[in-house]
Amino acid sequence: MLSVIIPTRNANASLPRTLACLTRQAKAAAIAEIIVADGGSDVPPDVEGFGVVLLTGAPGRGVQLAAGAKQANSEWLLFLHADTVLGDGWADAVRTHIAQRHDAAVFRFRLDDETMKARILEALVRWRCRMFAMPYGDQGLLISRELYDETGGYRPMPLMEDVDLIRRVGRSRLRYLDVPAITSAERYVRDGYFARMMRNLTCLAMWSVGVSPERIKRFYR
Known about the structure:
The chain is α/β, with parallel strands linked by helices and 221 residues long. It has helices at residues 15-24, 61-71, 90-100, 116-132, 145-151, 161-169, 186-191, 193-208, 213-220; strands spanning 2-8, 31-38, 53-56, 76-79, 84-86, 104-111, 141-144, 174-183.
C-alpha cells in the first residue's frame, strides 16, 4: 500500500537511523517497499540488512525523487529525507490519513537540537506553513499516487523541487499530521541558524520571482 522514497548522497551518517525507524513500523504503516535513490555517493549507501531497493543515478534531489517514484509500485508514496526520523505515532497517523483518503500530508517540522534557536526556527516554520501553506521536503510528503501523477510529480530540478510540487498540490489538498519529522540540525549548527535561515529565505524569494533553479543552486552553494 505504501512505498517510501529516500533520496541520498553521502548520507551514511544519518541514513541507518532513518531506515531503522521505518522498518520497525513497516507492518503497522503497511510499507510495501523502501526505495533509496542515490545520486552518486562517494561510498555506496549503507542499506545492508534493511531490505531496501537501491537505485543509482544522476545527482539532484528532484531527479532522484522522480526516479524513486517511477520505480514505486504502491498506491501511496512517502517521500522522506535521509537525515529525518519520524516521531512516535507516525505509523498510526499515516494509516489513518490513508484510510480517510485525504490526498496529501506532511509532518510537523522539528530539529534534533534542544537549543532555543531550534525552537524559534520551528515556530517560524509553523507560521510559514499556516500563512503560506509551504512546507519543505524535510517535513516529508505523504501523497496518493493518483494525486502525484495528476500534478506531474517531482520535476528534475537541482533545487526547490519540494516547493514546486507543493505549490501544484495546493493548500486545499494538503493536511498536517500532528507527528514530528525530526531532522538533523547539523547544517544549522555548522553554518549558523541566522545565516542558514536567510540563505533559505533568499532562495525562496529568488524562486518566487522566476530565477532559474540552476542559478539558485549556485547561490545556495
